[in-house]
Amino acid sequence: xxxxSFEDVSIGETFGPExxxxxxxxxxxxxxxxxxxxxxxxxxAFAKGVGLxxxxxxxxxxxxxxxxxxxxxxxDAGRVLEFGTRFTKPVVVPTQGNEISVTGVVKSVDAxxxxxxxxxxxxxxxxxxxxxxxxxxxxx
Length: 140
Fold this sequence. Notes:
Elements: E1 14-22, H1 24-34, H2 44-49, H3 59-74, E2 80-87, E3 98-110, E4 115-124, E5 127-128, E6 130-138
Antiparallel strand pairs: 1-3, 2-6, 3-4, 4-5, 4-6
Protein backbone atom coordinates (compact mmCIF):
# COMPACT_ATOMS: atom_id res chain seq x y z
CA UNK A 1 0.00 0.00 0.00
CA UNK A 2 1.24 3.51 -0.75
CA UNK A 3 1.54 6.28 1.81
CA UNK A 4 -1.64 8.29 2.24
CA SER A 5 -1.51 11.78 0.77
CA PHE A 6 -2.89 14.77 2.67
CA GLU A 7 -5.02 15.64 -0.35
CA ASP A 8 -6.69 12.22 -0.25
CA VAL A 9 -7.71 12.36 3.43
CA SER A 10 -10.78 14.16 4.74
CA ILE A 11 -12.53 14.69 8.05
CA GLY A 12 -15.09 11.93 8.57
CA GLU A 13 -13.23 9.41 6.41
CA THR A 14 -13.39 5.92 7.88
CA PHE A 15 -11.39 2.74 7.56
CA GLY A 16 -11.99 -0.78 8.77
CA PRO A 17 -13.28 -2.74 10.32
CA GLU A 18 -10.12 -4.81 10.18
CA UNK A 19 -10.21 -8.05 12.16
CA UNK A 20 -7.04 -9.18 13.94
CA UNK A 21 -6.92 -12.73 15.31
CA UNK A 22 -5.31 -13.54 18.65
CA UNK A 23 -4.53 -17.05 19.84
CA UNK A 24 -2.70 -18.49 22.77
CA UNK A 25 0.39 -18.84 20.56
CA UNK A 26 0.19 -15.08 19.96
CA UNK A 27 0.25 -14.49 23.71
CA UNK A 28 3.31 -16.71 24.20
CA UNK A 29 5.15 -15.00 21.35
CA UNK A 30 4.26 -11.55 22.68
CA UNK A 31 5.30 -12.49 26.22
CA UNK A 32 8.66 -13.73 24.95
CA UNK A 33 9.21 -10.63 22.80
CA UNK A 34 8.11 -8.12 25.45
CA UNK A 35 9.40 -9.83 28.57
CA UNK A 36 5.93 -9.63 30.14
CA UNK A 37 5.60 -13.15 31.49
CA UNK A 38 2.65 -12.41 33.79
CA UNK A 39 0.82 -15.77 34.11
CA UNK A 40 -2.60 -14.17 33.48
CA UNK A 41 -1.57 -14.13 29.82
CA UNK A 42 -0.56 -17.81 29.53
CA UNK A 43 -1.74 -19.92 32.47
CA UNK A 44 -5.47 -20.63 32.34
CA ALA A 45 -5.65 -22.04 35.88
CA PHE A 46 -3.80 -19.03 37.28
CA ALA A 47 -5.97 -16.55 35.34
CA LYS A 48 -9.15 -18.20 36.55
CA GLY A 49 -7.71 -18.39 40.05
CA VAL A 50 -7.42 -14.61 40.19
CA GLY A 51 -10.97 -14.10 38.96
CA LEU A 52 -10.53 -13.77 35.22
CA UNK A 53 -12.74 -15.80 32.86
CA UNK A 54 -9.65 -17.17 31.04
CA UNK A 55 -6.22 -15.95 29.96
CA UNK A 56 -6.24 -12.43 28.59
CA UNK A 57 -4.23 -10.70 25.90
CA UNK A 58 -1.60 -8.23 26.99
CA UNK A 59 -3.03 -4.72 26.89
CA UNK A 60 0.04 -3.59 25.00
CA UNK A 61 -0.52 -6.33 22.41
CA UNK A 62 -4.06 -5.01 21.88
CA UNK A 63 -2.74 -1.48 21.55
CA UNK A 64 0.01 -2.59 19.18
CA UNK A 65 -2.38 -4.60 17.01
CA UNK A 66 -4.67 -1.58 16.80
CA UNK A 67 -1.82 0.77 15.91
CA UNK A 68 -0.75 -1.68 13.19
CA UNK A 69 -4.16 -1.26 11.55
CA UNK A 70 -3.64 2.52 11.58
CA UNK A 71 -0.15 2.02 10.12
CA UNK A 72 -1.54 -0.07 7.26
CA UNK A 73 -4.16 2.63 6.56
CA UNK A 74 -1.58 5.45 6.46
CA UNK A 75 0.84 3.26 4.49
CA ASP A 76 3.91 3.25 6.77
CA ALA A 77 4.33 2.48 10.47
CA GLY A 78 6.85 5.31 10.77
CA ARG A 79 4.08 7.77 9.96
CA VAL A 80 2.17 6.97 13.16
CA LEU A 81 3.50 9.85 15.27
CA GLU A 82 1.33 9.39 18.35
CA PHE A 83 -0.90 6.62 19.62
CA GLY A 84 -2.60 6.87 22.99
CA THR A 85 -5.35 4.95 24.70
CA ARG A 86 -6.88 3.72 27.92
CA PHE A 87 -7.45 0.03 28.49
CA THR A 88 -11.15 -0.44 29.23
CA LYS A 89 -11.75 -4.20 29.06
CA PRO A 90 -9.51 -7.22 28.63
CA VAL A 91 -9.43 -9.36 25.51
CA VAL A 92 -10.23 -12.87 26.76
CA VAL A 93 -8.42 -15.59 24.79
CA PRO A 94 -9.99 -19.02 25.23
CA THR A 95 -8.30 -22.12 23.78
CA GLN A 96 -9.96 -21.58 20.38
CA GLY A 97 -8.66 -17.99 20.22
CA ASN A 98 -10.45 -14.71 19.71
CA GLU A 99 -10.28 -11.61 17.58
CA ILE A 100 -10.41 -7.86 17.83
CA SER A 101 -12.00 -5.50 15.32
CA VAL A 102 -10.41 -2.12 14.62
CA THR A 103 -11.98 0.87 12.89
CA GLY A 104 -10.86 4.46 12.48
CA VAL A 105 -12.44 7.83 11.76
CA VAL A 106 -10.47 10.92 10.75
CA LYS A 107 -11.44 13.55 13.33
CA SER A 108 -9.26 16.45 12.19
CA VAL A 109 -6.60 17.42 9.71
CA ASP A 110 -3.76 19.92 10.04
CA ALA A 111 -2.92 21.38 6.63
CA UNK A 112 0.20 23.20 7.85
CA UNK A 113 1.78 20.05 9.28
CA UNK A 114 0.08 17.62 6.83
CA UNK A 115 -1.21 15.50 9.70
CA UNK A 116 -4.46 13.79 10.58
CA UNK A 117 -5.90 12.86 13.96
CA UNK A 118 -7.76 9.55 13.94
CA UNK A 119 -10.26 8.26 16.49
CA UNK A 120 -9.66 4.50 16.74
CA UNK A 121 -12.27 2.05 18.02
CA UNK A 122 -11.16 -1.44 19.04
CA UNK A 123 -13.74 -4.02 20.06
CA UNK A 124 -13.80 -7.66 21.02
CA UNK A 125 -17.27 -9.02 20.45
CA UNK A 126 -19.62 -6.40 21.86
CA UNK A 127 -17.01 -4.93 24.21
CA UNK A 128 -15.02 -1.79 23.51
CA UNK A 129 -11.57 -2.81 24.77
CA UNK A 130 -9.70 0.45 24.21
CA UNK A 131 -11.06 3.84 25.23
CA UNK A 132 -10.05 7.33 24.20
CA UNK A 133 -7.92 5.80 21.49
CA UNK A 134 -6.36 8.51 19.34
CA UNK A 135 -3.65 8.34 16.68
CA UNK A 136 -1.85 11.20 14.96
CA UNK A 137 -0.39 10.36 11.56
CA UNK A 138 1.93 12.17 9.19
CA UNK A 139 0.55 12.29 5.66
CA UNK A 140 2.56 12.63 2.46
